[in-house]
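Hi all, long-time lurker, first post. I run a small reading group and we've been trying to get comfortable going from sequence to structure in the token notation. Rather than ask abstract questions, I figured I'd post a concrete chain and ask someone more experienced to write out its structure so we can walk through it together at our next meeting. Sequence below, copied exactly:
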Amino acid sequence: MNEASQVACPTWIVRPERPEDAALIEALNQTAFGPGRFAKAAYRLREGVSQVGPLAFIAIEEGELRGSVRFWPIAIGGTRALMLGPLAVNAGQRGRGIGVALMERALDEARALSHAVVILIGDEPYYARVGFAKLPPGRIRFPGPVDPSRILGLSLKPGAALNLSGEVRRGRLDDPVCADGAGLG
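-- Answer (accepted) --
Happy to help. Here is the structure in token form:
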């Protein structure tokens, strides 16, 4: 095989998040998104709610955290769903496929656990790589300002995203907080 036809193989591994990873993940999210992230509608939905542990994955390479993905339980109208985010990749490692690898692993696990639908707020060209597409404008409403063109959905079961309608709310409350804006589903 000549040099031009060789394909670079990823050297990172994707594994489930562990409790001892929390501080590194928080530092990565702080660097990637800054303190303003806490005011965003997606973060309001996470307040007082524990992430879906079996869907939290990290990418490790040479003993260093390269990326992280988490999911949260939400309700849209009367439908239980998942919200992807944050997905964070170390700035110096972007463009290598780490974020896509994290999402693919987590979405495979979500399917295996019989989850039906996932939404997120993000850039369609990036998230379309794993199947996300824009949801029809006005069908779902977030507890705070969100650019409707950035609301994306993915059916893990056939057609699940097509029927989403209503207010996006927290799926449960694990730790009581004062966060009226997100409500419970």
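A couple of things your group might point at:
The mean pLDDT is 87.
The first helix runs from residue 22 to 33.
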